[in-house]
């Protein structure tokens, strides 16, 4: 710990905040179910490379649980950019001071501060890697255990602090203690230090057929690339990845990178979709680029991924007595039971739970799996707006939560101010109808047919490519949100669904979708729409929740 202590002393003397390098966002798997809009979980942040050279001189084991320097000199604001309520509580002097650490094999885990209230349990921690080298860290397991040893699952995120030489992180869980105190254990099991791996791909962007590249390295089996020209001058690059190590599919963040003749990474024109499971055990990535950029002279392609450089085996754990006492003064619950007729499924706002870090609205539905049809949520508190997100509740199909970080406010303001819920940008899901889309004279030539559903025009383009039938759909009406999938009948049964080869992002202006029917050997087909979406970007719902005092 001497290196950290010296750095902290220098920071205290200079009276400056800890500075950070510029962090790049890492887009990880973006997947959306048929009737559920993905909650606004924070995008994991990927720090720049650790600029350090280390020599491992041996393995030493020293277990300890001792206080370290207070976390006053740690700047958590960048890490907490999507958890602004925790940052607000820190600035208000809230949070239970833990400041315990454990060291094993030269790696030190320190839990600095805990927040436990009626909405969540939240820990701020740091991890000093010692002499270990890696741009990032991952764990076989990370989480809390209660007094009976039961595992408490949650979410975590961390960033590399170049100046202090530590990873700063948080662990968050929806679990809350039944009483005022809870004896818990926070543990990390098997720490993997990872770095970026790459493999050059001799990919020809002018060839739209499938190109297969054996990798046989770092847990990756092979990569198949296929391109589809888009009408807007972009090209869709569809990558199918198979693995020899199944864990790489969730931990490796495997993606294709295009590099121009100056060695610069070519930017995608839209956020990518990564890691969608395919029909044959492969995982599908979807990226869009400007076609001219990929076809330019000197463009090169490579497979980029995270690979384990070193693993420190063992468990780093700390026992803590967590207390709600400090947060209770700013916590209250209010029963509302307000019907929301604009939302289907017999929905009502049952309860509001307010803590110093977060506001939660609990929505109850008479019908299971009810889709709450809005993309954006705000809480208006006396004219101050808090941004929120929608969350499904695991194991409770009749319940949805809206969560708002307490950004710059305190709980007392909600007790005295008028509060309203604002929901914007409505996206509704509907079942398709019984009218078939007739595809005739199927061949390698691209052909189009126009149909409509509920008054929305849809243009269908279909063609054969490498023994597969591709069926594209799009609409010139921006109020049409796209379809999720097509199918054809076997008798009266829906057994034959097209595999999505291009995914529609709900609420996006681009409503184009593409399905593939593999090994197709007919010249005609009637397909049907499984579900489709409508997109009302200007729709606003306002629900008064409580009057001011």
What does this structure look like?
By secondary structure, this protein is mainly beta. 7% of the residues lie in helices and 52% in strands. The chain is built from six helices and 33 strands. The strands form six sheets. Strands 18, 19, 20, 21, 22, 23, 24, 25, 29, 30 and 33 form an eleven-stranded antiparallel β-sheet that branches. Strands 3-4-5-9-8 form a five-stranded antiparallel β-sheet, with no helix packed on it. The longest helix has 13 residues, at 2-14. It is globular. The two termini are 52 Å apart. The model is unreliable at 1-72 (pLDDT under 50).
* Percent strand: over 45%
Mean of all residue-level pLDDT scores: 85
**What value does the Rg take, in angstroms?**
26 Å
Distance between the termini: 52 Å
Low-confidence stretches: 1-72
Largest sheet: 11 strands, antiparallel
Helix content range: under 10%
| Count, helices | 6
Number of strands: 33
Question: Shape, please?
Answer: globular
Structural class: mainly beta
Which structural traits does this protein have?
mainly beta, eleven-stranded antiparallel β-sheet, 33 strands
Secondary-structure blueprint:
Layout: H1 2-14, E1 24-25, E2 45-46, H2 84-91, E3 96-104, E4 107-116, E5 121-128, E6 136-145, E7 151-152, E8 155-161, E9 166-173, E10 181-201, E11 211-217, E12 220-229, E13 234-243, H3 248-251, E14 255-259, E15 273-277, E16 283-290, H4 291-295, E17 300-323, H5 325-328, E18 332-339, E19 347-354, E20 358-365, E21 374-381, E22 384-392, E23 399-405, H6 411-416, E24 419-431, E25 437-439, E26 447-453, E27 456-465, E28 468-474, E29 480-490, E30 493-497, E31 499-502, E32 513-517, E33 525-546
Antiparallel strand pairs: 1-2, 3-4, 4-5, 5-9, 6-7, 6-10, 8-9, 10-17, 11-12, 12-13, 13-16, 14-17, 15-16, 18-19, 19-20, 20-23, 21-22, 21-24, 22-23, 24-33, 25-33, 26-27, 27-28, 28-32, 29-30, 29-33, 31-32
